[in-house]
Write a sequence for this structure.
């Protein structure tokens, strides 16, 4: 059967990325407490395509993924990318994996337990010489507006927000550690179950810790600056302002070695 | 050229709805203040398909829409549905139109003007004897939790929420009127521009008017009960809880004639 | 601590549904082949709220869910709803659960195995006398246009589509059975891995089996009509037309006992 | 009233971007045929925030937008960004605007006219010395698989796809021109109304012009290479594969001056 993808291409256009996108797939990731966690990911996989080939072989991406989906960790991702490079005769291979990741949280006063969902991501890219690996978390938090508190007789507007932290590190950093950085930087963390005693605690804690999105971004940045394993980060905080129908946003990116 | 859609079908399955979905189209709707407003809609259009026809003629839906898109009002929607019934040899025709609709809002203290976007919808359905017409609005609002306020020393969690009102009425009810019902029932309305004096006002107003989603739904219901033009309604309120990553919800549906 | 939710309400508005929405939670569902399958669900839970109560107790929904999340089956859902009714002093309890569900599929010629993701849903509602239970699947399929094939010298436009089947039944019907009904009714099923021999097979099979969305809906309806366990169904087919930027749609609902 | 945002910050963290996101706003953009077109945009606006300020003033973004929203063109965007820099005492200002943009298209044989929606975007960023301006279009197209055509006895799988073109140019390039590049590179363009004669034409044209996503990306790249106004581009093509539930993707980025 003819291999149309393998045809010679004379348009002389190098494609940095060709591959598959938005694949929903069951995977197993590392879990600091329990060893591993089953979840459902959205996956993108790419290689580059030299000028002289017409197309890539899309089915091979999933064949390789099938071998590695049960052990998504930094070392195996590297191996998977190397295998993709070989199987697809490419110089660069890249993968992007995003998935819900659950932690059991205890309510601050009642101690009631429930799961909270965090959006985690892993990105890996490999050439012959270089391996780039990025880890990210999206953490739902509560922000209470310092300006609103200061100028108002009583109350202060507050809202759900999300803090995104993406890092590159020399040693393993757990999702759990990044999540903790984000929750400590917030006016308050959020929970799935809160009894009345907990709700009182969270309400008062948030009022005592007013934070702009700018404050949360900076507080997280200070923690990432102090963590010597991390050499690059991007922090984004977006709050679903309760007094507006649009969002407030703050972002800081830093390559620490500079 | 053969008309495959017109082929006789012997599977004996009547289809209640066949048609087109998720069409993005420029339309003009009625505006209480300015006469009309240009916007961009997502449109679904359907007819029913008798047992003995194999398919409907999808291109005719858009041909009919083209004639009416510049005058989306209750009377013309009725005419459009009647034309769909004829052109597609159907007994029932149906249209669903959803679009952003903008009002100029003045900030409560500074008087600063800005646009706020509301999600409006129109649904019409027509058979030989009956014409059903529904109008809906989605209104962003602020809700402040009465329980949190009551049990906490200071502060109270609050958040962005959305109130959905859908109605059937004997006489024209403007989007603007439904929007006002929703905003009055909230702990506070939301705005696109708020200066500090406005932010103080909204923060304090919300603290003085704590409302569960249940309260907002009921307050809106009271207004709709009192409006004699309206004979059916559904009110839904969903708040993006600032202390959780999930939402709180309340819904009431009423056919007033019963 | 004061229980604001328990306050007497004198607005005299009964709320059909109050509760929580869009909760992301880890659950375990029944799997015909393997016994069970871990997945991640979006969950809505509601009760009704009598006129005389001000609010419901949102944290109790998740407390009940925690007890049942590892055994999502028709019998346990019933028990869970009964417990919700009691715990929340409600007459009606309702749950809606939607999740990705994976099956291993073998490519038709090469036999290569890969996972395909289906969107499954379960809805349960319970009052004192009645228990309503609904099962649904969303199945990605391929449709090839019979009109395009008939009128063209060569080729025929085809596209990804999705078939939604929702049923109520007297006996257990597996997701796997509904998925098979949808895939058999399509021009061809879709797969995650297809080698060239498989791609040839699917391309030719689709060309030999041209189907409008109307055809797919009717073919599925015939199968559901013949399945005596099922007493109600709704079939919806929506195709992402390759020649348009909007979708084609067909829907049939039937209560078979009538 | 105290200005909390203006407080001195001693955390020593510079924020590259602070501002507002996901604002829905009515705007007027340039239209090659009709002079201008009203539409509804999603808008993000940012400035940078020096180490020593605690927060930015979010309301000023919308005040500035209000002055420019009726004339979204490259020159006025530049002026708007300069005004943002001054009003917010920032060194960098940035805006991202995305909106549906409609063209009237004539069906290829019947000549029937209808609107087709394209997703357009504008990004501008300004510092004291530099002004960066980017224009983008998202174009729905049809792709027919060359491999499937080659290996199959009859037929070939095809599907809706979208081509994204983003460019930086020395002179004005109209959305209309980029859209034409994308549609010419596809197996066939898509339309909102197609009569049977048109459907035959499009089906056959697509079969005669099989294109991988890789081919479409390269064909567009050749056109952009030849257009001397353009000095940077990114082309992305993503097809909603009819034989899979995931997508195929190709991307090429080029800075032509290198």
């Amino acid at each position: 059967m003819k291999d149309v993808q393998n045809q010679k291409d004379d348009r002389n256009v190098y494609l940095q990325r060709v591959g598959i996108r938005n694949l929903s797939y069951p995977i197993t990731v590392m879990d600091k407490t329990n060893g591993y966690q089953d979840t459902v990911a959205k996956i993108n996989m790419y290689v580059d395509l030299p000028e002289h080939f017409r197309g890539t072989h899309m089915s091979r991406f999933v064949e390789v993924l099938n071998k590695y989906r049960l052990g998504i960790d930094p070392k195996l991702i590297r191996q998977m990318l190397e295998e993709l490079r070989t199987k697809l005769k490419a110089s660069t291979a890249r993968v992007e994996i995003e998935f819900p990741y659950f932690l059991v949280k205890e309510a601050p006063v009642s101690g009631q337990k429930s799961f909270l969902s965090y959006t985690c991501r892993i990105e890996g890219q490999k050439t012959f010489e270089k391996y780039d690996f990025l880890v990210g978390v999206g953490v739902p938090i509560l922000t209470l507006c310092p300006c609103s508190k200061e100028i108002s007789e009583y109350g202060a507007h507050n809202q759900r927000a999300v803090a995104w932290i993406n890092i590159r590190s020399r040693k393993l950093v757990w999702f759990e550690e990044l999540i903790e950085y984000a929750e400590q930087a917030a006016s308050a963390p959020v929970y799935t179950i809160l009894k009345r005693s907990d709700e009182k605690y969270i309400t008062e804690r948030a009022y005592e810790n007013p934070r702009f999105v700018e404050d949360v971004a900076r507080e997280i940045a200070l923690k990432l600056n102090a963590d010597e394993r991390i050499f690059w980060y991007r922090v984004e905080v977006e709050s679903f302002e309760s007094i507006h129908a649009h969002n407030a946003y703050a972002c800081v990116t830093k390559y620490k070695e500079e």
